[in-house]
Amino acid sequence: MSDYDVIIAGGGLAGTIAAQSVSHYSNQGLKILVIDRSPSNLPGLKSVSGWICGDAVSKEAVDYMTTRIKVNWTEPEIEHKVKGVMAFSPDRETSIPFDGAGYMLNRQVLPERQNQRTLAMGVDFDFEINLTGLVYEGNQVVGVQGIDNKTKTPYKKTAKVVVDATGMTSMLRNQISNTTKMEKKVDRRDVESTGRHIMYFEDGEKDLTEFDPDYCIIHLDQDIAPGGYGWVFPKGKNKVNIGLGVEKTLLEKRNQRLGKSDSVSSLINEYVERNRAIKNPRLSEDPQDKNNATGNFQVSVRRQNDCMVANGFVLVGDSAWMPKPLDAGGIGPALVAGTIVGKCVVEAIQSGDVTEKGLWKYNKEFVNEYGYKTAGLEIFRRLIQTLTNEQISYGMKHFLGNMDVEAISKGEHPDFSNVTKLGMMIRGALNKKLADGLRFTTQQNRLLTEHYHNYPDTPDGFNDWSKKLHQILDESNAKLSQYQN
Ligand SMILES: Cc1cc2nc3c(=O)[nH]c(=O)nc-3n(C[C@H](O)[C@H](O)[C@H](O)COP(=O)(O)OP(=O)(O)OC[C@H]3O[C@@H](n4cnc5c(N)ncnc54)[C@H](O)[C@@H]3O)c2cc1C
Predict the structure, then answer these.
(1) Which protein residues are within 6 Å of ligand 1, measured from CB?
(2) pLDDT band at 423 (very low <50, low <70, confident <90, very high)
(3) Quick one: pLDDT at residue 361?
(4) CA of 112 to the centre of ligand 1 (A)
(5) Does the model's pTM come out above 0.90?
(6) Max alpha carbon distance in the chain (Å)?
């Protein structure tokens, strides 16, 4: 007899949504426990520096969750509303809208509210528990173990299903031993080192490419944020979440190229300083930011784990590497996956099959809803990371058509209709190389999207599917290495 029906390891964003979803779909008929290492007065902390995030999420993703599991996000966890995200080229001459209307969240307040709502839905919590591994019975995961930091004693709890929502560096996924389908480790090149400040400021020059109270701004620039981007996300008329992300090896190359020795933190401080619209910036001392005003953290930018289920075990959120490869947005996919995983776990428990086979539907439903596009975006991201600022500016100005912008705004890989137009004049060898690269990623994206639409219905088909996936990815990566400038 298990202690619980479902254990959610990690009570962050993805974990609490998954718990609410299990509660909703079982009509509070299942025993659910959320376990987190944070203290109960600081729930869902990513690290000692806080809930480090850009705080932006699309309205569409929040609505996806709300309509299905009837959890409503309102003020004060929604701190500010925006009309969309705007990405600017390095020369600032071209901008592309992303994602549509959205919200700027308060990530310190959100988990407090999430926990109140989750408790009211009949879910139990255990705080200050550092989970270190899984408990197995034969080939089935039947629980979790770790240390109770309150009493410094060993901790163990059992359940029919364990949902791993412990974030990107998950120790549970890293050590899983009852599956060969689930990937355990992330490639360092698929990780962005990021950081940000939450700040108040006085008005500087009016420049909507630097700060816009209605839009989240993204700056693509290989000198400012090599292999990533800088962001200026409004939290009010004079309040901002400002930061950037880089790929570490590309930062080293950039430092060599410019004869500098910048780190993520020094780049962020320079980025704040050079912003002409922001005068006298200072870290927020608001009570609702006091544990969260500045910090650095890692985020993955790859496709989700090729297989997110094992016997008695599933992954959700950053532990499944869900943040979108192009912009590292992980809240949206966590909302979608958290909702779906709850439904699939309840169905598996009710049908009496919590093996890999019984839980498989979660893989399939997430891929159909969201995950079908991520491998194509991973390839596209790798191409963008090879480009110079001049190539990015030229490409954004000349190669994007209206349909492409529409695809990007829906989070899809664009078709680059202009690049394939016969007779289009392309100036410069580097831009011809870029056009060739874009044609290539478009073609690979079509292959990958089609392949994900054939994601197997049962575990039996997985090995063949995975072999073909890796064949396409290996070919793509080999070709992309030729584009490196
Ligand atoms: C700088 C930065 C900016 C970002 N900006 C955005 C953005 O603007 N929009 C967006 O959509 N996404 C953004 N993201 C990504 C987003 O923050 C994540 O995708 C999201 O927080 C993932 O939630 P999660 O619940 O999966 O993981 P986490 O938030 O990491 O939560 C994991 C939880 O598990 C707990 N835990 C971890 N290990 C253990 C353990 N061993 N034992 C017990 N408990 C444990 C932690 O305490 C925590 O509560 C950003 C990320 C970073 C780093």
Answers:
(1) 10-15, 35-38, 44-46, 52-57, 129-131, 165-167, 171, 194-196, 243, 297, 299, 317-318, 323, 328-332, 334
(2) low
(3) 98
(4) 15
(5) yes
(6) 72
| Residue located nearest, by CA, to atom 35 of ligand 1 | 10
* Å from CA of 136 to ligand 1 middle: 26
Extents of the domains making up the chain: 4-53+107-186+302-359, 188-299, 373-483
Candidate of 53, 55, 106, 175 to mutate for ligand 1, largest count of ligand atoms within 8 Å of Cβ? 53
68 exposure class (CB count in 10 Å sphere: 0-12, 13-18, 19+): middle
Q: Which CATH superfamily is domain 4-53+107-186+302-359 in?
A: FAD/NAD(P)-binding domain (3.50.50.60)
Q: How far is the CA of 14 from the centre of ligand 1 (A)?
A: 8
Find the range with the poorest average confidence among 75-79, 91-95, 397-401: 397-401
The label of the residue with tokens 């549970």 reads: 172
Confirm if 232 and 316 have CB atoms less than 8 A apart.
no
Q: How far is the CA of 397 from the centre of ligand 1 (A)?
A: 34
| Segment 8-12 mean pLDDT | 97
Above pLDDT 70, what percent of the chain? 99
pLDDT at 340 over 70: yes
pLDDT at res. 482: 84
- Measure 332 CA to ligand 1 centroid, in angstroms: 12
| Distance between Cα 465 and ligand 1 center (Å) | 30
Considering the segment(s) 188-299 as one domain, its CATH architecture is: 2-Layer Sandwich (3.30)
- Residue 452 has a pLDDT of 97
What mean pLDDT comes out for the span 180-208? 96
Atom of ligand 1 nearest to the CA of 317: 26
User: Residue 216 CA: which ligand 1 atom is closest?
Assistant: 8
Instruction: Name the pLDDT band for 409 (thresholds 50, 70, 90).
Output: confident
Residue to probe by mutation, ligand 1, list 38, 41, 46, most atoms within 8 Å of CB: 46
How far away, in angstroms, is 13 Cα from ligand 1 center?
A: 7
Name the closest-CA residue to atom 37, ligand 1: 166
